[in-house]
Amino acid sequence: MSIIIPALLFGAAAIALLKKTDVFAALTAGAKDGLSVILGIFPALVGILTAARMFRASGAMDALTALIAPVLSFVGIPAETAPLMLVRPLSGSGAMAAASEIITRYGADSFVGRCAAVMLGSTETTFYVIAVYFGAAGIKRSRHTVPSALIADAVGFLAAALFSRLFFPG
Amino acid sequence: MAMAWIWTVLTGAALLFGLLTGRMDAVASAALEGAGDAVDLCLGIAGAICLWSGLMELMRRSGLMDGLSRLLRPVLIRLFPESEKIPGALDALSINVSANLLGLGNAATPAGIKAAKLLRGEGEAGGGLVRLVVLNTASVQLIPATVCALRASAGARQPFDILPAVWLASAFSVTAGLIAERILRRFFK
Predict the structure, then answer these.
(1) Cβ within 8 Å, pair A138-B120
(2) B1, B52, B63, B154: which has the fewest Cβ within 10 Å?
(3) Checking phi first, is residue B103 left (phi over 0); if not, alpha (psi -120 to 50) or beta?
(4) pLDDT in tens, B22-59
């Protein structure tokens, strides 16, 4: 897997150079946009991480986890990822905060940490996307969009747990 | 509004549980630590996010994204047969999907909205529009850079070793969404 990133960095630069694109100007212009991405999510992360830390410190997170653990373990999903799954369809920065909390708490290379990362990487902010698209297209009746999209999310979570377990046993 | 509810419920539950379990001191100090975590998180991933945005801009300017969108057209015609009859729809769709594959959210959304406007039915979502939105609510990103940056800043040995699992989980998720769309459409006339 490690070859992907170096190969991508070189390959994109080489092709761009052949096409007479100013490689370094494009790279730095994009990197500048990256800063505004970070600045854009920072205020939301301050709010969400504060609430998430309080929620965990109070013992409420343990209660929630214990409550849904039987259902989730039946389908092979670690109960520790419950907060991430709950917030994932609603808020992108919320999901990032939840995943980062899980990954730092349980370790990036633990099963729970990997599962949270795969969940975050294989799903999207469903309700936000639906609101943006239907809002822009002026659609009132979304018909079967929400159930279809939520089925996709649920299958994504199940598959994330399954493949984290298959690829990283032990 | 969703976040307003989440924030209020989380802090309310923390207050209630803190009272019940006698952990109010821990809740109070956690309240001050969370904001510091946000700083650590942002600083931890800022470099990788900026580098990645740079690479994405390079791919866009050098025409790599356009090349990918041309490759996708045959697949998208099968997925959106109606787009052949609507001028411009297939172009917008292929830009939307290729930008999503590369993780270029800034390019994906305008193209997706253009495709949505072309595919919409009479005041309600047509089948093609539902499929487009389901495709966008499921992730098809090939390299989830933010997630890998999160893992790297948390000390992962190989931040990218999750990629095969992400690809398979994404493929299952997108497929399930499209199958669900096909099955559910008859129940939502």
Answers:
(1) yes
(2) B1
(3) left
(4) 999 999 999 999 999 999 999 999 999 999 999 999 99
Task: Supply the range of the domain harboring residue B79.
Answer: 32-187
Six-digit token string for A94: 């919320």
DSSP 8-class letter at A53: H
Does the model's ipTM exceed the 0.90 cut? yes
pTM for the whole structure: 0.93
Average pLDDT, chain B: 92
Show residues of chain A in contact with B6, CB under 8 Å: 48, 51, 87, 90-91, 94
Residue with tokens 């929620």: A55
> For tokens 């092709």, what's the residue?
A15
Domain count of the fold of chain B: 1
| Residues paired with residue B138 on neighbouring β-strands, in sequence order | A123
Question: Distance, in angstroms, between A7 CA and closest chain B CA?
Answer: 12
- Asked if the Cβ–Cβ distance from A117 to B147 is below 8 Å, we say yes
Alpha-helical runs (H) found in A75-110: 82-87, 92-106
Helix, strand, coil percentages for chain A (3-state, nearest 5): 80, 0, 20
* CA–CA dist A128, A115 (Å, integer): 23
Interval B3-17: pLDDT, tens: 788 899 999 999 999
Q: What domain count does chain A have?
A: 1
Residue A106's pLDDT is 96
Does A131 lie at the interface with B, CB-CB under 8 angstroms?
no
Its domain, for residue A80, covers 41-167
- CA nearest neighbour of A99 among A69, A67, A121, A73: A121
Phi-psi region of B152 (alpha: psi -120 to 50; beta: other; left: phi over 0): alpha
Q: How far apart are CA B176 and CA B168, in angstroms?
A: 12
Cβ–Cβ contact A111 with B under 8 A: no
**Interface touch B51/A136, C-beta < 8 Å:** no
Q: Please indicate, yes or no, if residue B104 is contained in any of the structural domains.
A: yes
| Alpha carbon of B157: minimum distance to chain A alpha carbons (Å) | 7
What length is written for chain A? 170
